[in-house]
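Margin note: ligand = zinc ion.
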Amino acid sequence: MRCVECGNESLHPVAVDQGFVSECALCGHVDGPGELVERVLDVREARERGFDPLVYPLVKVLAELPGIRVTAAMAGDPEHGFSPAVQFEIADRRFDSLVKLLVSLTMINREARGRWVVEAELQRDLCFVLKPRLSPRFDDEWKARIPAFQEDLALLARRMRQNTSLSWWNKGS
Ligand SMILES: [Zn+2]
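Resulting structure:
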């Protein structure tokens, strides 16, 4: 097989989800089923921008909301007891996206494994953090739940993406 982009013959298989794509060792062109290719390019884009691929789809959908600027994102780390979180700022007091995000979250929380909330923090400026609500006691039980919160990341990204295309979301903006 040859790379359709550069003609190079050293293509190597890359496992994605349940399937495979082929990646050109020379130019990096990715070939295979569309959905898988998209996934591979997403992972690559995430790494290039310094995000963990696990949290990147959620970062992307949030960053597209008017007035929201994502400042940091963590995918979480069960071993060290860090839960996933996305930190963002609101530009020019455009809180309409935040309100819609909160409405969206109340719906998503019915499906999610954690209870996701947005906390406001006063740092240099007013900043917000989207994360699963912390238990009052930080213990091993909480640590054990972190993988479930990490699974929620994909659900949140998918549902947010769907919600932003619905009429209630786009009304009056
Ligand atoms: Zn190539």
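The chain has two domains: 11-48, 56-170.
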